[in-house]
């Protein structure tokens, strides 16, 4: 596995987190007409996927803001050179972002939050179902939403298969079956 971002303990990521983040970057590059360098990006959530994705975007010189809920996460985000927002206070604060990546598997973007999106904003929802977009919420005209489920198998099938194989093997060994 690659080196962990600063402040993130070894073992904090799973083998499928890297292809998920790389797939999100690939989607962003394919679906926009600008580079990630200098792009104004919001990553919602600072768990395994959110932290890794935020650091990869930051390494590509994107202007990265990360939303989280805990003061500890706010401190880590800012110490790593990114801006922090409170996920509970996103309404009216999304107009500056060209790209929004959601990693929270619960509806955090409703009508109030989405109403302030700028024309052309791309929202990539990486979260498992139900995802982070409220079912009844509508995106403003000119904005797009991509539900990006199962990215490891789509963008890096060999790495995803290896991760599944290794996990099954570990479980069988732990259960003394092998």
UniProtKB/TrEMBL annotation:
<protein>
    <submittedName>
        <fullName>Dipicolinate synthase</fullName>
    </submittedName>
</protein>
<dbReference type="Pfam" id="PF02826">
    <property type="entry name" value="2-Hacid_dh_C"/>
</dbReference>
<dbReference type="InterPro" id="IPR036291">
    <property type="entry name" value="NAD(P)-bd_dom_sf"/>
</dbReference>
<dbReference type="GO" id="GO:0051287">
    <property type="term" value="F:NAD binding"/>
</dbReference>
<feature type="domain" description="D-isomer specific 2-hydroxyacid dehydrogenase NAD-binding">
    <location>
        <begin position="31"/>
        <end position="105"/>
    </location>
</feature>
<dbReference type="InterPro" id="IPR006140">
    <property type="entry name" value="D-isomer_DH_NAD-bd"/>
</dbReference>
